[in-house]
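Minutes, project check-in
Item: structure for the 534-residue chain
Input as provided by the requester:
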Amino acid sequence: MLIKALTLENFKGIAEPVRIEFRPITLLFGPNSAGKSTVLQALVYTREILERHNLDPDRTLLGGEWMDLGGFDSLIHGHDRSRQMVIGFELDIHSTDLPDYLHEGDSWLLESAEGGGHFPEEWLSRIDSIAFSIVIRWSQLLERPMVKSVLIDANGSRIAELESSQDGKDITIELLDVAHAIFRDEVGDDEEPTSWFTDLLEDALHEQRTRDWPNADLPLGGQQDALPEPEKSLNLDRSIWGSGYGVYANHPLAFQLLITSVLSGLIAGPIDLVRKELDKLIYIGPLREVPSRHPAYRRSPDVSRWARGTAAWDVLHNADSAFVEKVNDWLTGDGKLDSGYAVTQHRYRELALDHPVTMAIDQGLMLDEEDLSELFQTLPVHTRVAIRDMKADLEVFPQDIGVGISQVIPIIVGAIWQRSGILAVEQPELHIHPALQVALGDLFASELENNEGIYLLETHSEHLMLRFLRRIRETAEDDLPPGAPALKPEQVAVIYVQSTGQGVELTPLPISEEGEFLQRWPAGFFEERAEELF
């Protein structure tokens, strides 16, 4: 799970900085219009920023017609352009390498340089956790929002800052902490810490560029503002380089490449990692569309179709039989949803009325078996997806049965199909029976072993929550029913969202191994039920 946490400030209803820590299953609870969609919209907005540098979006690549963000004025807290918005990400990169932006032949240049043999990973590999924040402000000069600053923290402390002028023409690495632990050389306990990297950097910088660290003032080019361009190394201005390169004196290009690669991996690297992660983000909205009797399936992926659930039917149309069988196992399996309905996938060849085979049959002519086989191979193959009523043993279409099945199938398909990134679902429980809601809990828990990402669920379902609590308790007590998924407290985050006079508040509610909440809910735990019962 790459993305560990998200921090928001001055985003929609959130004023003061709020940190949202993700777990493999992250649930957002709260009253209607409390701001539960804020977290999801922040992820969608960040995707627009990192993918298209779109800081003022209405409709988005991900949400299509279903999600209209309304532009920067709707996203900035209080619709106040004088505020600055901050969106931050904390990353766990234990199992992920920061990119070094080296191209083919670059490694050879670094290795062959006299006095060289040093590579970016010597420093980048010392980073276990990295975080960045994007600071967005309205530019009066440009009359549009811009990324004013990018802040980078490595292993828990600030290491670099990028700044842009109001017109976007002057962009600099304003701060670079060359005394940071990742730059220090390994020395004995009795020796003063040294930094070969820092010494070399100071030797190489033009004397007019030397500053009192961490003040750097290193100009950059090739950017619209403080946000680095996607999948590109930083473009350090040539004016920063001097004439001294220490051990790289005979190979200044190798040195410049090494410095640029390290700084790019440190600053642009985490941003590119999040961009790629959010590129896999899937959003399923609260009202899934019931497909028509003759839907137009898409062979090429269109992520915006997930918002209405139609992409799930595209997946079923193009999937192999093993995937369809797994979907049906959850739809029909005993101890699972046991809905009484299964997905059917029929592949057939279309025989047109004017096709030679059709005409030969109409005329009563006999065709050679080999010729007939060759003609059939030219027929286009089509796929039809339908629903089978298992009790009546009838094939039906989604329009012929209750709306609940058409609402839950996209959830099942998305949970199984998504293998990394974030699957965000609004109201997965909508229009389905409580028995199916608890089974969805087992679905998400079961798929954790196949999914390296996050299930982000915005829900009102008490039944879904109770199933997670039950599985946590049964796992701790070693009392799981046969086939039931194991679940641990550290795999589930429950966040209560409520609107106050000061803005939206998000309260994490930790869970014990006994499957109980360790603190009271801000407004009681589904207290309406208790009031009705007692």
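Outcome recorded: The domain at 282-533 is CATH 3.40.50.300 (Rossmann fold).
No further action items on this chain.
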